Structure formats: C-alpha cells, structure tokens
C-alpha cells in the first residue's frame, strides 16, 4: 500500500468545486486547488489505525443484470488533515 501511495500520489492536485444546476444542466465553479507531493508513506498505517485515513471498499451492482463487481478500496482523508500525509501542501484560491 505504501508503494502504491507513492506511485499514485507522487504529485497530486486536489480540486474543490461548487456545483449548480442551470436549466437542467450541471455547471461547476472551481474554487480551490491544493497541490501535494511526496507523500509520507511511513505515516499511512498510523493514520489508518487512528481513523484519520479511512477506507471504503467499493462494490457495484448492475441494475440491468444484477451482477456485482468489485471496484476495490477507496482511501479517504479529510482535507484539513492532508498535511499529516503530504508535507507542505500548497493551497491556491481560484476565485
């Protein structure tokens, strides 16, 4: 898991957007971007154990044929805790 974290998030841009519906069409207003790089992979297990990083295991059911397929784990961290996994995150306001 640590290696995969390093690979997937060697450098990442986390985008915050606001969604509105106008005449039945969804529109997005980009608000902020947080730039992170070089995750502290050694912190991953501790953050999982403490509940700061959580995991959902995704499973999808097809409504037409009722087949189930695994989509795998989804790891989540609240943006206020990004600095615990990614040193020195940089936030850019887009508004």
Automatic annotation (TrEMBL):
Molecular-function annotations in GO: endonuclease activity
Keywords associated with the record: Endonuclease, Hydrolase, Nuclease
Domain MvaI/BcnI restriction endonuclease: 2-86
InterPro entries xrefs: MvaI_BcnI (IPR029127)
Protein known as: MvaI/BcnI family restriction endonuclease
């Amino acid at each position: 898991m640590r290696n995969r974290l390093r690979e997937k998030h060697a450098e990442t841009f986390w985008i915050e957007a606001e969604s509105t519906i106008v005449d039945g069409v969804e529109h997005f207003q980009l608000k902020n971007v947080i730039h992170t790089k070089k995750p502290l992979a050694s912190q991953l297990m501790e953050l999982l154990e403490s509940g700061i990083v959580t995991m959902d295991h995704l499973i999808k059911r097809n409504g037409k044929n009722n087949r189930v397929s695994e989509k795998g784990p989804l790891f989540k961290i609240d943006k206020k805790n990004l600095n615990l996994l990614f040193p020195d995150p940089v936030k850019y306001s887009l508004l």
